Amino acid sequence: MVIVQPNSQIKLTNVSIVRYRKGGKRFEIACYKNKVMEWRSGVEKDLGEVMQIDNVFLNVSKGQAANKDDLMKCFKTEDRNAIILEILKKGELQVGEKERASMLEGMYRDIATTVAEKCVNPETKRPYTVTMIEKAMADLHLSVNPSRSAKSQALDVIKQLLEKKTIPIARAQMRVRIVVPSKDGKRIKDKLMTMIASKEDEDLDENYEWTCLIDPGQFRPINELLQAETKGKGQLEMLSLTETKQGDEVF
Question: 21: which residues sit within 8 A by CB, 6+ positions away?
Answer without folding.
Answer: 27
